[in-house]
Design brief:
Immunoglobulin-like, signal, cell adhesion, disordered N terminus, 10 helices, about 15% helix, transmembrane helix
């Protein structure tokens, strides 16, 4: 006991070590329980809640452990006779105990109980002896007994009297008889082989009917209590005329064996007494005497024939033997006595009884093998093989039965449990006796397997691919991720979260923690990000939580939200004021035909009708003319010499620029330019003027003109000079 409580008082253990220690302690406790028995005694008729024992003190158990380990008392049988207070550790009687009611016809009355502890399991056997107190007086079956004795009876003749009954036992039971003073009779006391005291009336002086025809005697029965209690009965003696012969039984003792399941009215035995007298003096009648009330209820005696038959339900478990005394009386009131002893034979008429003492209704699925689930006892009130029992479990279940002591069994696990495979068990325990006709009973135990967080969530996919069109609205839902958990309750409750990665920007996506819905936080730009991936974690609500991860890939779909941009050639503030374009037109015939046209473009500052008219009347100006004028003016101010030099430099520069433009014009295949059938003339040249800074302005061809050439450059062969100028670029269109 000391070792057990010291171990429980230790600090934290690891899971495996704790289980091993508990199993060790359980084995020690069971071994100690078999060897140790608490024994107490209690007088009967004590009041309700009477003190029996201080269990906590006797076991050396701290009071805090009584409630923590759910200590309780369990009595044998269906009725609970004792209570254990977990706060004080005191064992008390539930009700007033009457020894004569609890243990009838027994000299000793011992009540067995067990103290039951949980966490870990421990059983301690206890016995309470109910001590008899002198609370019952001797009682005669009849208040008056009548004896008819012939006057010819010789001194020394004995006449049995009805014995008194005292429910108390031992010293408190019937101890002695006394007879009131009289001149003719005395008492003789005797004890039978069964220890029962009997009393006989002994004739000491000859009777004379003519002198005294009737005598009244007072018979007193006294017990040995302190103070003693007594009971009385009147004995009336009727003196008869002479009757020469008394009845004589064939045997002094009749011994009979009778099965306890014997039917009513079955013949038990026939007693016979013979009287040789004639007439009424030879006619014998039979009656019970010195027989207990219970035996009189179970057996019936025919007064004329002497047949004893079954009159009640015999029960071997109640009484194994019944003893009776039969008196045979003739017509002259002479009588004789014989004894009848009936031995009740046990038959297998009681099925085993299963009494559940403790049950753990729910055990975790990670409970180790050999975990105690329930404790129960099996009782069969039969004897011998009829009362011998065995227990088994129906079906192939991960449980086993372990016998302990006093017909107690433990229901234990014998394999690993898995709630996801089987969440609950309905265990049927069958108890069977060993009788020739075997009787059995069943008890069902329902055990629920509680969940342990042993399964991580599982995503339905390893990679989720979702798409969204760029320029989306904020908080747009684009799909959902789903993970399931095979556990139950909070262990199966899944929460979703993004896995943050250090060094990376916060993703543009969000996952709802409860539903797994995926949202885009803000508008996306395909031109910046066309796709991205994030990792999503699904964690359950266990302790510690288990988790799984999946990849979420978001693909951004492009939409036409950007205008084309000319990458080459790049614009230059120093572009030439006039540009020449050659346009090729080709049909789809066989063979294909084509024609070309040359388009001259002039860049101007501002645009008006005046520009258009001037452009039609005036040859195109040198694109560098303003600069030349500025230079000439500057040079003129300095010296005339520099003016001539500047003019010469300008002329040379203009010629080089025109030559460069001519060299950069595209060259078309000969087949397109030389073909004249079904095509426009070989070449047309258009002059178009635009305002400086124009990007998307429209233009139109007004009319065919001769090609417009820069100053100083003659038209090519087959080309004509032409000039077109437009004042308003916004009003021009191309055809």
């Amino acid at each position: 006991g000391w070792l057990f409580w010291r171990v429980l008082a230790c600090g934290r253990w690891s899971g495996d070590s704790k289980r091993q220690v508990i199993l060790f302690i359980l084995c020690v406790c069971v071994g100690q329980s078999r060897a140790e028995t608490l024994r107490y005694s209690l007088p009967e008729e004590m009041g309700r809640d009477s003190f029996v024992a201080d269990i906590a003190k006797d076991l050396g158990v701290p009071l805090s452990q009584l409630a923590a380990r759910k200590a309780r008392v369990v009595s044998e049988g269906s009725e609970q006779l004792f209570l254990l207070n977990q706060n004080t550790g005191v064992l008390t009687a539930k009700e007033s105990l009457d020894r004569e009611e609890i243990c009838p016809q027994r000299d000793t009355c011992t009540l067995v109980f067990k103290i039951f502890f949980e966490n870990p399991l421990q059983l301690i056997r206890g016995e309470v002896e109910i001590r008899d107190v002198n609370d019952n007086s001797p009682v005669f079956p009849e208040k008056e007994m009548v004896l008819k004795i012939p006057e010819t009876a010789s001194p020394g003749s004995r006449f049995p009297l009805e014995s008194a009954q005292d429910k108390d036992v031992g010293i408190n039971g019937l101890q002695n008889y006394s007879l009131g003073p009289n001149p003719h009779f005395a008492l003789a006391l005797g004890t039978g082989k069964d220890g029962v005291k009997y009393v006989e009336l002994v004739l000491q002086r000859q009777l004379d009917r003519e002198e005294q025809g009737e005598l009244n005697l007072l018979l007193t029965a006294i017990d040995g209590g302190s103070p003693p209690r007594s009971g009385t009965a009147q004995v009336r003696i009727v003196v008869l005329d002479a009757n020469d012969n008394i009845p004589v039984f064939e045997r002094e003792v009749y011994e009979v064996s009778l099965a306890e399941n014997s039917p009513l009215d079955q013949l038990v035995v026939r007693v016979t007494a013979v009287d040789p007298d004639e007439g009424s003096n030879g006619k014998v009648r039979y009656a019970f005497t010195q027989t207990s009330e219970r035996s009189r209820q179970l057996f019936q005696l025919n007064p004329a024939t002497g047949e004893i038959r079954v009159a009640g339900n015999l029960d071997f478990e109640e009484a194994k033997t019944h003893k009776m005394v039969v008196k045979a009386t003739d017509g002259g009131e002479l009588s004789a006595h014989c004894k009848v002893q009936v031995e009740v034979l046990d038959v297998n008429d009681n099925a085993p009884e299963i009494a559940l003492t403790s049950l753990t209704a729910s055990i975790p699925e990670d409970a180790p093998p050999r975990t105690v689930v329930a404790l129960f006892s099996v009782r069969d009130r039969d004897s011998g093989d009829n009362g011998r029992t065995e227990c088994s479990i129906d079906g192939d279940l991960p449980f086993s039965l372990t016998p302990t002591f006093d017909n107690y069994y433990e229901l234990r696990t014998n394999a690993a449990l898995d709630r996801e495979g089987t969440a609950e068990y309905n265990i049927t325990i069958t108890a069977t006796d060993w009788g020739k006709t075997r009787l059995s009973s069943r008890e069902s135990i329902f055990v629920q397997i509680s969940d342990v967080n042993d399964n991580p969530p599982e995503f339905t996919q390893e990679v989720y691919t979702m798409s969204v069109t760029e320029n989306n609205s904020p908080m747009l839902r684009i799909g959902s991720m789903k993970a399931t958990d095979a556990d139950a309750g909070k262990n199966a409750r899944v929460n979703y979260a993004l896995v943050r990665q250090e060094g990376k920007e916060q993703p543009e996506v969000s996952v709802n923690a409860d539903s797994g819905d995926v949202y885009i936080l803000r508008p996306l730009d395909y031109e910046k990000v066309s796709a991205f991936e994030v990792t999503v974690r699904a964690a359950d609500g266990g302790s510690p939580p288990l988790s799984a991860q999946a990849v979420l890939r978001v693909v951004v779909r492009d939409e036409n939200d950007n205008a084309p941009v000319l990458l080459h050639p790049a614009p230059d503030e120093r572009d030439a004021a006039r540009q020449r374009l050659i346009v090729l037109v080709r049909d789809r015939g066989q063979p294909p035909r084509s024609a070309t046209a040359t388009l001259a473009v002039a860049l101007v500052d501002g645009f008006s009708e005046a520009h258009l008219r001037v452009s039609e009347e005036t040859p195109a100006a040198d694109p560098d003319e303003p600069l030349t004028l500025y230079l000439i003016a500057s040079l003129t101010c300095v010296s005339a010499l520099f003016l001539a030099t500047a003019v010469a430099a300008v002329v040379v520069k203009v010629r080089r620029a025109r030559r460069s433009e001519t060299e950069t014009l595209p060259t078309f295949p000969p087949t397109a330019t030389e073909s004249n059938a079904g095509s426009l003339p070989r070449s047309y040249v258009y002059d178009v003027c635009f305002a400086a800074g124009t990007v998307n302005s429209e233009f139109r061809f007004l009319r065919p003109l001769f090609p417009c050439f820069p100053a100083g450059l003659p038209p090519g062969p087959g080309e004509q000079r032409s000039s077109v100028c437009s004042q308003d670029a916004g009003n021009l269109g191309g055809e």
